[in-house]
Amino acid sequence: MSPVEIGSLCVAALILLIFIGMPIGIGMLAVSLVGVSFIRSDTVAIRMMAQVANDSLEEYLFAVVPLFVLMGLLVTISGVGRDTFDVFERLLRRLTAGLGIATVFANAVFASITGISIASATVFSRVAVPEMTRHGYTKRFATGVVAGSSVLGMLIPPSLLMIVYAVIAEQSVGRMFLAGIGPGILLSLIFAATIVLLARRRRDFVFEADENTAAYEDLGLAAMLRKSVPILILMLLVLGGLYGGFFNPTEAGAAGAFGALVIALLRQSLDRKTFWSLLVETGQITVSVLFLILAATFFSRMLALSGVPRELAHVLLSGSLGPYGFLVFYLLLIILLGCLIDSISIMLILLPIALPVASAAGFDLIWFGVLTVVAVEMGLLTPPFGLSVYTIKSAIDDPDLRVGDIFRGAFPFVIAMLVALAMIAIFPPIATWLAGA
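and the corresponding structure tokens:
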């Protein structure tokens, strides 16, 4: 067999292994090792795997992963998410479906210091959903808003998916973070417009009753300022330091983690047992992410050795499909895979194949990365996988709330994400103007 045929069989074997339940990282390592063995030799395969382990994880940049993860976990347990929601609830309560819009913008701000969508889904399912249902919103709509707006956690910087993409695509993490700001703001505004449109056209979808008789908590100016200070300090520390040129991404993560630790200690929400649990969880998340990156790097080198990406680029770009036909096909494939497997796995499987094609097509890889992240995040809301939906279900633990209801509530936000994806694809400066691309 030719190297291209071996590489193609390895891709097919990986997909088969995933569908029968093998962990993605182990599957990638296995097929890559076998692929290189057939293309070259067993000795070369073992040496390449050892070299990949050294090359892919030795970079100083990877320290950013545990730091941002720890910061997100500390912020979650310190009550900053609840305070952020309280502030936006006070500011937007008089608008049509104001609590839904407050949830979106509170999630957007919370995303700017956590970078993990599941953390946002967990916090706001416990904070926003009870408040919205108390004020006459349907559980379906309330949980749908939380699920939809939780995706902002992986788009608005800092973002774990942006870091993973930057590493695989060999792009600047700082530029990827900058590229996420415009699309994040755009998606927040489209979500808010979707909520207003639903409230005016489909009131039965949004509200249980026509009149809201529940009382709002009276939150004065001093209380609003007190609740706003922690989130503003963290945003200034992380984003201000990063974009002001004072910190690189790893140093910004360290500053943010330290700031989040100080806030948690001052609020007395952190004891030794809790802190140790957070450190263990941070380690588990970090190891899993880095192991996947190692496996994806080996898989990428095996594919490059086989020549599959080069042949694929030639076939796709020289035929009737063309560059933008490839882009549409790629995004649709991501959305389809999002119904079946998790976000990071999708990127690790597709990017080693798609990036050489995107480069050959002349696409800006920063813009291409933003499109990838938005499309991947749609998988958090689509059945049957829908990780954000199941996170909300487990966090609320209401026997009367069905998973299907949450999926139906989140569906309008899937449509909104499709609109945002199309706008970013048609108008690349939405993603690239801040990144200087």
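(Above: one complete record from the training split.) DSSP finds 21 helices and no strands in the chain.
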